[in-house]
Amino acid sequence: MRDYIKRFLIAIIMALCISLLFLGGKHSEAAGRLETKEMKDRWIWPADGVISDTFGTRQGKHKGIDIAGKIDTPVLAVDGGEVVKAYYSNTYGNVVFIKHPSHLVTVYAHLNKRTVIPGQTVKKGEVIGKMGRTGVATGTHLHFETHQMEWRYDKRYAMDPESLLGKADVGEAVQGGIASIVENVLAASSNFHPEVEGKSQSSISSKAATYIVKQGDTLYSIAKKQKITITKIKEINHLTSDLIRPTQVLVIQ
Prior knowledge:
This protein has about 250 residues and is α+β, with helices and mostly antiparallel strands.
């Protein structure tokens, strides 16, 4: 009888533990959804440009999104936080890592120039670098990543930045910053705020002339179709060779 009561009590305790774990999991899941919604409402896009690649492509190896644009387009902190790393990498090129109060880490890679240093506190919309093509990059663009808790070499904690920034398809134009915070920055160097002598900003289209490379395309075929020279395409996009790849976004002017 005593053994029966002991087994009964053990069963009740185990049931309570399982229930608490279940409720805790539900609470964490709900908190995670709430945090994601709050980030999406608060975060800004890190740069003006055109989406040239999304999360999970290249057999799942692409752990971020790419925003193609002009050289030296300002790159902005998507939210306030602390710069935890800023250095030159053979793959990322000039890269900046920011840790946010939400315990998310954002990565800004292939920068032409870094304008912040480790330990520096940055505000949302603050310029942390200029867009470039340093490291392993086929064209001028920002490679942007989001990680939970920490960045690791295996990128096991990587998450889709679009879950926090909003959905955008390849070829779609995005605009970084909030006008009231970075109006002067956006006017300085951007695909969507070009400075053209004799024209006001209001008379210029808000979208850059771009071309998304298709399978089988060559610089020759694109140049012929767009009525532009190969030399001009390479100059605008800072290409050092004739190598292009499908889904790559080229700026055509």
